[in-house]
Amino acid sequence: MSSIRSRDVAAVAPSFLVWTGFFFAPILYLLVVSFWRVRQYKLVTDASFDNYLLAAGEYRHAIVFTLVLAALVGVVTTVFAFAMAYMIRFHAGRFGNVLLFIALTTLFGGYLVKIYAWKGLLGSTGIINQALLAAGLISEPISWFLYSPFAVVITLVHFLLPYALLPINAALRGVDDAPIEAARDLGARPSRILIDVILPQCERGILTAFALAFFVSAGDYVTPQLVGGTDTFMIGNFIQSQFVNRMNAPVGAALAFATLLMTLFVVALVSLLYRRILKACAT
Amino acid sequence: MTLRTACWWTFGILSAAFLVAPLALVVAFSFGENPHATLPFGNPTLQWYRELFAGDDFLAALRNSAIVTSCVGMLSAVLGTAAAFGFTAIDRKVSRLGVQLISLPVMLPPLVLALALATAFSATRIPLGLGTVIPSHLIFTQPFVLLIIYARLTSFDRSLIDSARDLGASSLQIFCTITLPLIAPSLIGATLLAMAISLDDFVITFFTIGGGMTLPTLIWGMLRTHLDPTINALGTLVLVLTLGLSVIAFKLTRYRG
Over chain A (283 residues), what is each successive 10-residue block's mean pLDDT? Predict the structure, then answer.
């Protein structure tokens, strides 16, 4: 069966045709467009790096702000998901299955509904402010709950938590009990066991969870637009606006690819540093 | 119960509440008389659902969503399953690379994908509509079917097929009487999952549909214009459909996280 039969090629072909026509070719075209220009609402095909220089200049702050906010979302989501997965693995019993079921169920549904639910929750007349007022903890509604970076972070963490939980849960389930018990019998503290035994074995799951949360946050424009207000413009908003309002696809495309490159760089950096950070924590 | 266990349980219950509460509130508001997203909910009512179902926009969006979701579900099932069969028959190294390539669109931010598609459609002068939405959805739904069926086929008992062939069954007979019945639960599950993902998609749909609307783009329109209380009824409907499809899908594929 080492040679490839024509029947198998025919079986894979339709899938690859759709992939080529509606994914590979359009992405490649967008990459080419990112080097072009727009003059009088028409694409001009003279290639230059001007759009990328614009991304590195005028839009540098927006890209950096987006990466920082996305990294924050990535870290918060990963830590939260790890705590949940840790509880499911070591402390929850059957309740763990309930948590996993909730995460699985809410995984693929209600993207927009989740965002606008937070819009209602966080508003100055929203339920959270109502509850805090009723409890007497605050005397007037907290206005920075909504239309702020805080709102963007909490909304994205809520949306991404199920995505982060699954890979970390799978990784923790694969951790063997024996070395943990051995370490405990030898008198290691729980924090020591976590850093020396558990976290090194969960490297892939944790990095996958972080990368997923980081990528999605860095590329999102709907959340900042709906709950971020005027001071939380993320790069997605600028990209979207270049296409929709300014009809400038080249600049939008260059911004998209520049951001994509930066996110890949950050994820590669985090992957490289993971072991070193653990080692630094251990000493 | 020790103090430590109690702390972990409190954390677990709070995180479950964090995940569920925002969605539960949308559902609760959709059945209450209070038109604002504040407490109390007010008396129970179906008023918002009546208003929603009376709107022409909603009926058009529901129709479009039904067309897109069912076409995307069926096409993903056929393409993903065919590809999974092809990949299981060829060399492991080649097939792993192929599966990863097909799965690539899922890793990319939807906005980049949406803009690439919109730009390409405009350059090739393909008119936008449901005909452009369906293949656009297909590229990020077919990987899920492929991955699920591929995993099912690699854990498959080959001796059944070998003995059927030894007894003189044709390839078609083997497929119809052995393979298909065995993978049917995974296949239905994978198809429903593809449908849930398609039904819920907003970003790609928004950039590839042109003038029309689906349920998510209708929600978006309602959010942009005014605070319309029927949005909670619409949101509940989308939640019930997408989460319902997901639950059945995970039950059928026996995926437990």
Answer: 73 95 97 89 82 90 95 97 93 85 89 92 89 90 91 96 95 90 88 89 94 94 91 89 87 94 94 86 72
Is B82's CB within 8 Å of A11's CB? yes
**Domain contains B127:** yes
Q: With CB atoms and an 8 Å threshold, state whether B250 touches A105.
A: yes
Contact status, residue B26 vs residue B210, Cβ threshold 8 Å: no
| Residue contact B5–A221, C-beta within 8 A | no
Are A200 and A235 in contact by the 8 Å Cβ rule? The answer is: no
**Tokens describing residue B22:** 């925002």
User: Which member of B26, B87, B91 has the closest CB to residue A12?
Assistant: B87
Q: What is the pLDDT of residues B100-158, one digit of tens each?
A: 999 999 988 899 999 999 999 999 999 999 999 999 999 999 999 999 999 999 888 88
For chain A, list the domains and their CATH numbers: 51-282 (1.10.3720.10)
B235 part of a folded domain: yes
- Residue A39: burial class (beta carbons within 10 Å; 0-12, 13-18, 19+): exposed
Stated pTM of the model? 0.93
| CA–CA dist A113, B232 (Å, integer) | 9
The total number of structural domains in chain B stands at: 1
- Minimum CA–CA partner of A258 in chain B: B112
Would you say residue B27 lies in a domain?
A: no
Beta carbons of A36 and B122 less than 8 angstroms apart: no
